[in-house]
Amino acid sequence: TVEWVSTGRYKVYVPSEWKLQDNNYMAVLTGYGFVEGSSKAATKATLLGAYSTYFEVFVSDDASANNGSFMFILTNLNDWMYL
């Protein structure tokens, strides 16, 4: 599930069953297309934090926040650890 928090800020929720640990997984992000209202300003996506049940994304085309689309891949850095 993705939650729009405010202009350019999003929370992407991950299932708690995945048992991810804060800042122990990698969210690889890329902007997709252009920011809202533009046909020239490319979308940039920045990871703000990775927590056990969600990660936060900041979307922009410069220093200011903009709404826009992004894609992501998650990698659990603890996949090879014995629990």
Characterization of the model:
- The protein is mainly β.
- The chain is 0% helix and 48% strand.
- Strands 1-2-5-4 form a four-stranded antiparallel sheet, with no helix packed on it. Strands 3-6 form a two-stranded antiparallel sheet.
- A hairpin with a 2-residue loop joins strand 1 (2-6) and strand 2.
Strand and helix layout:
Blueprint: E1 2-6, E2 9-13, E3 25-32, E4 44-50, E5 54-60, E6 69-76
Antiparallel strand pairs: 1-2, 2-5, 3-6, 4-5
Task: Give a short synopsis of this structure.
This protein has 83 residues and is mainly β.
Please supply descriptive tags for the structure shown above:
83 residues; mainly beta; 4-stranded antiparallel sheet; elongated
Percentage of β-strand residues? over 45%
Shape: elongated
The value of Rg in angstroms is 14 Å
Distance between the termini: 27 Å
Query: How many strand units?
Result: 6
Helix/strand-derived category reads: mainly beta
Count up the helices.
0
Low-pLDDT parts are none
**What does the main sheet amount to?**
4 strands, antiparallel
Oligomer: single chain
What helical percentage do the residues reach?
Answer: under 10%
Mean of residue pLDDT?
A: 93
> In sequence order, what are the helices and strands, one letter per element?
EEEEEE
Read across the widest sheet, the strand sequence of neighbours is 1-2-5-4
